[in-house]
Amino acid sequence: MSRPCLPPGTTASPEPSASPDPAASPDPAAPARTSLALRGEVACPVSLTVADLRERWEQHRAEVVFDCATSGPRHHTFEGPLLREVVDDAKPVFDPRRRKDRSRFLLAVTGGDGHHTVLSWAEIDADFGNVPILLATTMDGRSLESAGSQLVVPTDRCGARYISAITSVWVGACAVPPAVTVPPQRTRATPT
């Protein structure tokens, strides 16, 4: 079910504000308010915290094992909403009735450490790959409220596309590459 857009310039949750007094120390008991910006070719860009992701969408569970190049297999349990459902609510500007229109869209996900990855809309679309990629709100039963949401691709064998502390999800169409002109091949004359 699609939700209406928030008015332009508003966020699902208020952005963290800097303390007006630089000498004031933050309350250590207060959770951090990390958020991700969902933007690009969407009608409803929005900023979302882990609490927003937990409260506004159904939570799905993924038990994953991925091979870490440095420390071997890692076992984790994640919970969070499906990336597809969250992005759907931002209203990507493709025609949802046209599969070919949807299939040309990409998603670029960036983490707090600068690590990023690119996914195709077709990977998460129910008419194509239907991969249950999560924006995790918990990892192994612990809230990610202060650490930030994590991208979880449960079908991947390795964790290279797992993005921690997501800061941005960009959605947009892949531009058509320019046509490449192939020069005609020369033919060699055969001796007679």
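the 2nd protein, sequnce then structure:
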Amino acid sequence: MIINSSLKELEQILPQNFKKTHRSFIINIEHLEGLNIFNEKTYEASFPNEKYALVSKSCIDKLL
């Protein structure tokens, strides 16, 4: 699906279970399976079917 909107605009219209976790990612926290350390400032969120997304250390509180 191609959308011509910013993540900020998209975040405002998506339901509450979608959270912006990185400058390039919005994730559905209902499908979150786990978090792993990626580097000192970033985590990697894992999802079903071996899908992954980045989570900034500053956004980790949104998921807990």
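Residues 25 and 50 are 16 Å apart (CA to CA). The longest helix spans residues 7-13.
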